[in-house]
Amino acid sequence: MRYGIMSDIHSNLEAFNACLERIGQVDAYVSPGDIVGYGASPNECCEIISRLAPTTVVGNHDAAVLGNLDLSWFNPSARAAAVCTSQILSDTARLYLSQLQLDLSKSEWSLVHGSLDDPGSFKYITSPWTAKPTFEAMPVGITVCFIGHTHIAEYYAKQSGIEGVDRISMRNGGKIALRDGFSYIINCGSIGQPRDGNPLAGCGIYDSASGIIEFFRVPYDIAETQRKIRDAGLPASLADRLALGI
Known about the structure:
The protein has helices spanning 13-23, 42-52, 60-65, 76-88, 91-98, 128-137, 222-231, 236-240, and strands spanning 2-5, 28-31, 55-56, 103-105, 110-112, 144-146, 153-159, 166-169, 174-177, 182-188, 201-207, 212-218. The chain is an alpha/beta fold.
């Protein structure tokens, strides 16, 4: 099967539509969460993703707008965005987000927003050291785990029986072939707010038949997204950072 990977959309409708066009026709969609937060179009993004019916897990921003995560956990800009999103979120979008689980495992892969060993804590995987607990928590027979949360396009690879973990940047996109005897943690980056120095939206495709994962960086109308963020009264920093990919 061909899966479209869409993480950390963050209410960025322009980037979301551009990534859907780039991904094109696939058999199913997978999302490691954070559909809302930061951006000005939470209801529109929830409507689209619910219609696509992807396999989706809850992100920390999704949990926060539902009142399921203490906002003191967030920095001031993220906290302001969560409050604003909660105020404008439709009942339909709220119901959709409330039905998402913390993690899921299918026959071919696992899915979580932060780390698989403790999904509810929303820990960040930012190094080989912090990746190890997720490798250890992957169910028997599953060798791929899709994550989001960091907004950085990269992957981690660990060979069976070997202690070390490799970390490989994919900030400019590219393609990898999964190897036998290895396990992988895959982060296709953020659609709505990239933070790896590349302002282009990040998404991907996993072809389970060929074992190929493609990482895409997709241009979109950043200026329009910035305008909508400012018009919504959200912190200006959330608009400014989009042009820098930070």
